[in-house]
Structure formats: structure tokens, C-alpha cells
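[stage:ingest] chain + small molecule (6-O-phosphono-beta-D-fructofuranose)
[stage:ingest] validated
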Amino acid sequence: MNIGILTGGGDCPGLNSVIRAIVKKTSKLGHHVVGIRDGWKGLIDLNFIELNTGSASGILHLGGTILGTSRTNPFAKEGGPQKVMDNIKKLGIDALVAIGGDDTLGVAHKLYGMGINTIGVPKTIDNDLSATDFTFGFDSAVNIVMNALDNLHSTAESHHRVMVVEVMGRHAGWIATYGGLAGGADYILIPEKPFTIDEVCDSIKRRHATGRTFSIIVVAEGAVLEETEVVITKDVKKDAFGHVMLGGVGKFLCTEIEKRTGFECRDVVLGHLQRGGSPTAFDRILATRYGIAAVDLIEKKDFGKMVALRGNQIVAVSLEEGVKRAKTVDMDVYEIAKTFFG
Ligand code: F6P
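[stage:predict] done
[stage:export] C-alpha cells:
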């Protein structure tokens, strides 16, 4: 069989672990693997590389993706879907594994409807895919946030400051909640729970009234101000999948807190640092299990599916279910985090 693999959307730690697992397992089964470069763009431009056990070795621990990625949406390009179909045919691809978030998997789902044998592997640091308990990449991002908060604690304490740390996650507060909980945040703001500046200031004042002289606030980039119900964006321009570029809520909050409480504040934007570096052990193992499960589905010719984690089992769900709705934060976990707010 001729198997194609592509990685689409924002990169994250663990992509190479999936690629390695697929190549090593398929080579044992006697299949041939083609790596499509830069996500769906590679299937429009016919840009690919041969993958074999040699090129897929030594990459388990590497961040990013050896195939490159892009936010290209063939369905937003004139003649895009046809080019993709033609090039899949030209490459003789019998099965195509798309590793990505809701956007990439949404394209895989549409192509499946057009007769292409697609399989999806869920990736995103945002952990916002509803059909799986966890996407790989999330745990690595949470660890980066946790380490950043550990480092910020000492400087915040020494200077008696309020540090406002803006984290990624788009319209879901998974990274903020888990990262904040792991790093001992004193307040966490998430998109799922619109906030008022007064409630944040009151909480910090309560904490400082007990003798504490510093606070760490984690704010998700998609956090929404209750009064205005708008998210703050860096740029109103939308990408090919219709997403605006979020960012700026941390700086806004920092200015307001300093103005209203008199406490000295600094803001830190963790940004793309959260997507870089080596995957954690959890993500390496999850990504590897996903890769092997994707090959099992190909062997069974069970296409139009996405591999998913349910409890500790890897299962297969339809791609349709995989991209149906975004998964918001588990509010039970957020309630636990609230125990530690001022
Ligand atoms: O979806 C992953 C993500 O890192 C989001 O958390 C973030 O809003 C977005 O991608 C940033 O995208 P880009 O890399 O295109 O700036």
C-alpha cells in the first residue's frame, strides 16, 4: 500500500513521534510512505518526500515537524480540492493520514466524503477537540507554562509585583487551567467564564491583605471581558480557516490592575514558546499510540476515522464526530483551581 502523511495547522511537540510510529510500523508491514510537505499546501503544489525507517529515525524527541506545516485550506482556494484530488492520484496514495487540529481534520473529513481514504490523528496544544480526552501537544504546552510560572514566582516575590501571564489556547481555557493549576496561579481567566476587572482586583487585594506581596495571574488569550463580551485581537485579519489572531488581553489586564489597585504589574506573553521544544513523555507515548492505531485502521481499511483517547484506551471515532464541536474546559478542574484564588 502507498500511504501519505501530512501535518497541518500550528505545529506542536509530538508530531514527529506520530510520523516515526507510522513509518516504523508500516515498513514492517511492507508499505511505502510518502511525506507531504507543509500540510495541505503540499498536496496543492505536489511537494513531498519519501519517508523510510532511516529518515524517520532519531526524531521521537524532536519538536516541530520534519514535514513542515501550514494553515492552507484547499477548500478556500480556487480549484484547490481538485488539485488535491489529482495529486493524491498522481502519487498513487491509497491511504492518507492527516495529523492536525479541527481545521486539518475538517479538510480530511471533506476529502473522505469525496472518496479519499483519510484517517485523522488529533493534535493541538489547545486540547479543544471534543471526541478525545487529550490531544498530544497539550501536555508539553502545560509543562512549559508550569515551568514559566515556577520561574516567575521568584521575581514576582522579590519585587512584590503582580505578574500577568498570557497563554495560548484560542477559545478554550485548557492550557490556562492546567498550566495555572500546575504552576500555582493565584487567579486564572478562561474564555469559558467571562470576567470583570473588579473581580480580579478584589481577589488580588484579598490575597495581599493576608500578607502576601505578589500574585501570579494566568489569562487565556481568548478570555472575554464580561462587560463588552469581546475578545482582544492582535490583528483583525483572518487566516484561511477564518480564525483571527488573538492576543493582548494580558497587557490590557496588567494596565487595568495597576491603575485600579496601585500594585506594580508586569505582563508576560508566553506565545509560541508554548509550542516549541521536545515533547513530554506523556505526549511521546500518546503520539506513538495514535500513530500505531492509525496504521491499524489502515490495515482494516476502516477509513473516515480519527483515533482518540478515551480513558486510557485508544479508540476510533468518525472524523465527523472528531470535528463536530470544540471542547471547552472541564469546569470541575477549574473549580479545583479556584480553591487557590485569593
Ligand atoms: O491552535 C494552536 C495555537 O497555538 C493557538 O493556541 C494560537 O491562538 C494559534 O495557534 C497561534 O497561531 P499562529 O502560530 O498561526 O500564530
